Amino acid sequence: MRVNVNKNVIEKIEDLRARIRYHDGKYYVENMPEIADYDYDQLMKELARLESSYPQFITPDSPTQRVGGEPVSEFTPLEHRIPMLSIENTYTEEELREFDKRIRRMLKSERQDDLSAHLNNVVGQASAQTDSVGPVDEIEYVVEHKIDGVAITLWYENGVFTRGATRGNGFRGDDVTANLRTVKDIPLRFLCATHIRIPPVIEIRGEIYLSNKDFQVLNQRREEEGGPQFANPRNAAAGSLKLLDPQTTAKRPLRLFAYSFGYGGNSKFTNHIECLETIGKYGFPVNPHYKLCKNIDEAVSYCNSWESRRDELDYQVDGIVIKVNSLELHDRLGSTSKAPRWIISYKYQPEEAITTIEAITVQVGKTGVLTPVAELIPVPLSGTTVSRASLHNFDEIERKDVRVGDYVVVRKAGEIIPQVVKVLKEKRTGNEKRFDLPKRCPACQSDVIKEEVSLKCYNPQCAAQVKRKIIYFASRNAMDIDGLGPALVEQLVDNKIINDYADIYSLEFDDLVSLERMGEKSAQNLIDAVAESKARDLHLLICALGIQNIGSHAAEVLSKHFGTLDKLMNASAEELEEIFEIGNIMAKSVIDFFSNSHTQDVINKLKAAGVNLSAISKETKRSSHIEEKSFVVTGTLNGYTRKEIEDIIKNLGGKVSSSVSGKTDFLVAGESPGSKLEKAEKLEITILDQKKFEELINE
Ligand code: IVH
After folding, report:
1. Fold of 2-65
2. Distance 146 CA to ligand 1 centre (A)
3. 146 catalytically annotated
C-alpha cells in the first residue's frame, strides 16, 4: 500500500517537473510562453508542496531548486556578480499580510536572540524573559509597478556603460550589450546630477519593455510586411533583445525602467527610496508611480488602487512589487535560494473570460495574408465587450484543436488583443465542427497559396486587399487623410466609386454626399483633407504605397537616398541593395512592386492628380532658444501630430528624446500628458503648454 502511495507521488512529481521544464523552455528559450504566469506558478506551488511533504524525492535538478531558465546559446554567457533572484508571487491580500507578519516574526525572533545573547553576556546565564521583547514596529514598504518586460542588468565602469545582460538562469545570463546600446533610455554614461560619488564598478538593474502603443505599431508593421505577430509586448521586447543583429533591435522602440542597484550600489544608502531617487539622478528612467507606504495597510490599498487602473498605463504591469524600504532590513532578512525575503509581488489575475465560438472567419490583409478570427458570443472582459479574438494563423487552430461551437477561455493578451487561450474540451457535446482550411480567398474566391506559415491570396484586384491598401494609404503614418477611415473606404469600394488609392484624388463632392451617413460638411472636409494630402513629403508617399517589407523607416531611407519617386522607380536591385539598411529582400520587394503594370497605372494617376513626388528639402533654421536643447513631447497638441512637433523642434536645431531625464531641458505637455509630466515636475524641468511652446518656436 505504502509503495503504491509513493509510486503515485513520484509519478505526480515527475509529471509536474516535466510540465514545468517544458514551459520553462517555451518562456525562457523560445520566448513563446504557452501558459499564463499564474498557471505556471500553480504548477510550481503544487510541486513545492509535494516536495515539502515528501522531501526524500527532492532532486538537485528539480525546477524548485533553481532560479529560472537557461540562456539561449547564440549569446556569450555573462556571470552575474550578484545573482538575479526572482520574487515570490502572491495573489491575495491575505498572502500579502502574511508576508508582513512573516517579516515581523523573523525580526522579532532575531531580536529575542540578540537579547538572549546580550543577557548571556551581561548576566552570564540564558534568560527566559522573552516577554520583554515588544512587538516589532510597523514596516515601511516601497510599492512599485511590476513591469511586464524583460529583466536586465547593466554594468558601468567609472560611470560608463560597458556590459549588459539578461537574467538567464539567475546566475548567468546572455550578454546582450550590443542590443542594449541601441536602447535610448539606457544612458551610455552616468549623468552626474548628484553629489554622490559614483563607485568605480556599479550595476543598475531594471526592466526592458515596449509601450502598448509601440507594440501595436510594431505588430501592425509586421502584419503589413507579412511577418508573424508578437502575442504581447513582453514577448516583443524579449524577442527584440535577443535578435542577433543590433541594427534590427535599434528599430524596435525598447524602453527601460530602472528599479534597483545590483553590485556596488546600495552601500551609500539607508533605504530603497534613496536608491530609486539616485538612480533617477544618474540619468535612468525610474517608473514614477512608486510610493512609500508606512505600513502593510497602506501598501495593500495602493496595490488595490492600481488593479482597476492599470488600463490607464501605456505599458504592461502584471502586478505590484512590495519592497521593504530599509536596506539594513534587507541584509537582516536575507534571501532564500530563489528570492529575497524583503520583497514580494502581488500579481494581478490575468483577465480572462469564458465564451463560445460561433464561427471562424477569415480576414484578408493588405498583402493578401489570410488570418483566422474567432467570432465569439460577446463577453465582458477588462472593461470592454469582446466579440472577436485572434487565432493568429491556421497552424494554431490545429495545434489548439479549436472548433466552431467550442467553449473557450479568452484573454486580453497584454490587455490589448483578445486571444483564444484554450479550448474547454470537457465541455464538448460532440456537435462542434472542425474548421477546414480555406482553399479560396473569402473576398475574391481566387485560389490561395501556402507561403511558409501563411496562406495568401495573390489576386491584386481582390476587394479585401484593395480596401486594406486604401485604408493604409490614408492612415496616420502614411498620407494621413483625416476622415477616410475603414467604414468609408468599405462604402467607396463596394459602390465602385474608387478601385485603388489613386482614385481618392478624383473623388468629387457629389460622390460623397450621396453616400449613407455622409453630410455635406463631412464631404467637404474630406475633399479638403484629400487635397491637403497631395503635398505630403515623399517618404510618407513611399510608405503609403504599401510595398511589401517597406515600412515607415525604410521609406524614409529610400526617400533620402533617391529624392524623387521617379528615381526610386528606375533603381536597379543592385543599386537598392547597396543602400545601408536596405537588404536584398526589401530590394526585391521594391523591384517587384514597381515592375507590376497595375502599379504603374496607379502611379500615373497619382502623378496626374498632382501628388507631390519629391522629398521636401528641409532647410534647417536655427533658434538660439532651441538649438542643442533637449525636448520631450507628451500628450496631444491641437493641430499638430506628434511627428510634426518633433520635426519643428529638430528643424530649429533642438533634440527630441522619448523619455524625461535630468538631461531634458523642456517638456512639451499637451492634453492628457501622462506620467512624463509628473516626472518632469519632480525633476523641476521647464514645462511648456501649447501656448508657451508656440511662443518659443515663433521667437
Ligand atoms: S526588483 C529579486 N522591481 O519581476 C528581484 N523587479 O518576477 C528584485 N520586475 O526579475 C527585482 N518590475 O525583472 C523589481 N519594480 C520592480 C519590477 C521588477 C518588474 C521583474 C524583475 C524580476 C521579475 C520577477
Report:
1. Helix Hairpins (1.10.287)
2. 6
3. yes
